[in-house]
Structure formats: C-alpha cells, structure tokens
Design goal:
Elements lengths: L1 H23 L4 H12 L14 H21 L2 H6 L2 H26 L3 H11 L8 H4 L6 H29 L7 H26 L11 H19 L3 H15 L1 H28 L3 H6 L1 H23 L7 H9 L5 H11 L6 H20 L2 H5 L4 H4 L2 H16 L17
Helix pairs in contact: 1-2, 2-12, 3-8, 3-11, 3-12, 3-16, 5-6, 5-8, 5-14, 6-8, 6-17, 8-16, 9-10, 9-11, 10-11, 10-12, 12-16, 14-15, 14-17, 16-17
C-alpha cells in the first residue's frame, strides 16, 4: 500500500503541474497514469506489485465506478434528456447496441471466442469516455449540437451498458451460478435505492425545518451518494445502477444540490478514476500485451476504427449531421474508464475465460487511450474556421493589404473601377 500511495501522489503532482500543457497539446493525464502504472508495475520496474485478486483492486474499482456513474447521472437530469434527446437518442438507442453487436462479431470471428464471451466483450467496450473528447467538447467553435451529443451520450451510456455486462457475465459464469431472478432483483433494487433515497433527502431539506448552510452545501450530494452506497451494500442492490439512478434523481429534483456539488464531485470522481487507471496500468505487462496474438491486435484495431464508425453511420442516417460532424462522433467513441472497471470486474469474477476477456479488453483500452487522447486537439481544430483558410491565402491577403496601405489606399475599400472609354 505504501509504495502505491507514494507513486499515486507523485504522479498526481506531476499531472497537476502538466495539466495546463495537457489542455493545449496531445498530452493526456489519463494516458500519463496508465503509462506510469505500466512502467512502475510488475511488468517493468516492479515498484508497484498488484495482483488482479487483491482486495485493493476490487475496492478501488468499485468506488471509482460508483463515483463516476453518480456524477455522470448528475449531468443528465430528466429535463436535460427531454430537451436534448433527438441526437443522443440515436447514439444511445441505436449506436450503443449496434456497437455492442459489431464488436461481438469481431471477437467471435476474428479471435474465435464463444458467443457469450464475445457479447460480454461487446458490452464492456460499448461505452464511451468523455475524458478523451475534452478538447472537442470544450471548443466553442464546435457546433453546440455536436458538443451536447457527445456530452449526453458519454454521460448516459456507462449506466445503460452495465445491465448487459452483468447479464452476460452471469451467463458466462455457467448454469450453476445463473439465477436471472436474483440478478433482476439486484438490478431493480439498485435502481429503487438510487431513486428513493435522493428524492427523500431532497424533499426533507426543502421543508421549513431543515436548510444546508453555504459551507456544507457541497457535502449534501456527497452524503446522499454515501448513503446510497451503504444501503446498496447492505441490501445487495446493484451499486452501479444505484449510483447512476441517484445522480439522475438529484439532477432532476435538486438543482441547487446539483450545482453546489458539481465541481467538488467531479474532483472526487477524477481522483478515483486516476487511481484506478494507475492500478489498471500496473496490471498490464508486456507478456499480457503479447499473449493476445495478432488476432487480438486486429480485433482491437477493428473495435476502434470499424465498430463505432459503422454503428454511428447507421444510427445517424437522415439525421442532418455534416460529414465532418459525423466523422468526429464516429471517431470519438473511446474506450475509457467504465470499460477499465468492467474489465476488472470480469477479471475478479472467476469465470473460466476471465483472463482471455480481460486481455482483449486491456489491449483495446490501451490502444484507445493512446489514439484518442492524442487526437482530440487535432479533431477539435477541424472546426476552427480560421484553420480552414489555407496559410498561403492568409499571407497573400496580408501582403496585399500592406501594399495598399503604403500606397494610401484604404485596404478595406473596394478597388477603384477603371475609367470608361470616351464614346
């Protein structure tokens, strides 16, 4: 624990010092933690020694995904979904299941996995991560509908993919462990806790007997989240669906709680995410990356450049997006944090194919983090109108204006018309 804490603190300090540079270049904070984990883990220097079945790995993954799903849900209250559902609805209603199916086809026919394991991999890799599209979403020259589409989709698809992951994992565990009734109860109980607890807490605060001070207001949503987590564990409800439902409920009924918690909550979720990425990197080794064979690497490439683009192209037929917008949406389907944690959950599940599934997921995520985190700035600049003008044209125009200014002409005035000949 001590070496891991020292490593995390050191890498976190480095990430903070480089954060300004990362916003302007292809440098990625997520990639920094992933690479640091890989270099300092057992696969290289051995400073951080972790095994997939270590309690720390499971606990950290659980807490990080809970925090991420809670904050993701808080970004998309029902009002937000109603006002901005047309394009995100296509991406989630058609794009997500199509991506799952196409990815599963690749895992089955390229790698040769069984259908259940292939569908499990498809569900794990279907969600997208907004971290790697930050430059695109934050660029005001990118059309608002495109930024809204990527924001809403990435905020919702983690929670939508989760039931598929749990069902396929239960099926992969075998008939002896498959109890769909119990699984349905677990998922339903998680949603119930995620809706009822925040709703009651917000309604109680709105009475005349209670009121949170400005100092403690950001802790309101945190307390709600912790209560949902504790009740989910005590009742064996699904923690992740509870977290996602709780975030949506707070965003829907507690606008003040949502606004006060937003920045504070994102910092907590970001800390846990980065810690989980460091652990994930420490579990990756060169033998693991090589053990998937050329078929595994072909699958990883196809999962990134074929599955998502094909699914998005089909989903947005007739939607009115420009070619540039559709290309940006198709490319920025990065496999990020939710896929990392779902992969760790499978690895700790004990199913016979856990190691093989995790290896394919790990290779795809590593490739995605490296590719998407290094291209978000480039793709965002596609939408910069000034960059659409060729450099030679701008230089020629400045030279022409300078020449006209020196000759006493108004550079913005139209050129004088030639005198008409006498008739």
């Amino acid at each position: 624990m001590d070496p891991l804490l020292i490593v995390f603190a050191g890498v976190l300090l480095l990430a903070v010092l480089l954060s300004s540079l990362a916003h302007r270049t292809i440098l990625s904070t997520a990639a920094l933690f992933l690479v640091a984990g890989f270099v300092l883990g057992d696969g290289a220097l051995g400073v951080v020694s972790l095994a997939p079945d270590d309690e720390l790995v499971g606990t950290l993954a659980e807490l990080a995904l809970f925090a991420v799903l809670f904050t993701d849900g808080m970004r998309v209250g029902w009002q937000d979904l109603r006002t901005a559902w047309r394009l995100p609805g296509r991406a989630l209603g058609w794009g997500l299941p199509l991506t799952l199916v196409i990815t599963a086809l690749g895992a089955h026919y390229v790698v040769g996995l069984g259908w259940v394991e292939s569908l499990l991999i498809g569900a794990i890799l279907a969600p997208t991560d907004p971290v790697f599209a930050a430059a695109l979403v934050g660029n005001e020259k990118v059309p608002p509908r495109l930024r809204q589409l990527l924001n809403v989709e990435s905020g919702v698809n983690d929670g939508l993919a989760l039931p598929f992951v749990m069902v396929f994992l239960a099926v992969a565990a075998g008939s002896d462990n498959l109890h769909l009734g119990d699984l349905g109860l677990e998922l339903g109980l998680g949603v119930l806790i995620g809706v009822v607890v925040p709703w009651l807490a917000i309604k109680v605060e709105q009475t005349r007997w209670f009121s949170a001070s400005t100092q403690y207001e950001p802790l309101n949503a945190l307390a709600i989240g912790l209560l949902v987590l504790a009740l989910g564990k005590a009742t064996h409800g699904n923690l992740f669906l509870a977290a996602f439902a709780a975030g949506i409920t707070v965003a829907t009924f507690g606008q003040r709680q949502r606004e006060s918690f937003e920045h504070f909550g994102e910092l907590i979720a970001e800390l846990l995410k980065l810690a989980a990425l460091l652990v994930f990197g420490a579990l990756i080794s060169l033998p693991l990356l090589g053990s998937v064979g050329w078929q595994g690497w072909v699958f990883a490439v196809l999962a990134l450049i074929a599955a998502r683009p094909i699914a998005i192209w089909i989903s947005f037929l007739g939607a009115g997006l420009t070619v540039r917008e559709q290309a940006a949406v198709a490319w920025f389907g990065p496999k990020g944090f939710a896929s990392v944690v779902y992969g760790l959950i499978v690895l700790a599940s004990g199913i016979s194919t856990a190691q093989g599934v995790f290896q394919l997921v790990a290779v795809t995520i590593v490739l995605s983090i490296l590719l998407h985190s290094s291209t978000d700035i480039v793709v965002a600049r596609w939408f910069d109108d000034e960059r659409e003008v060729p450099a030679w044209y701008g230089a020629a125009r400045r030279l022409r204006d300078r020449t006209r200014g020196q000759s006493g002409q108004n550079p913005t005035a139209p050129a004088p018309r030639p005198a008409e000949p006498d008739r």
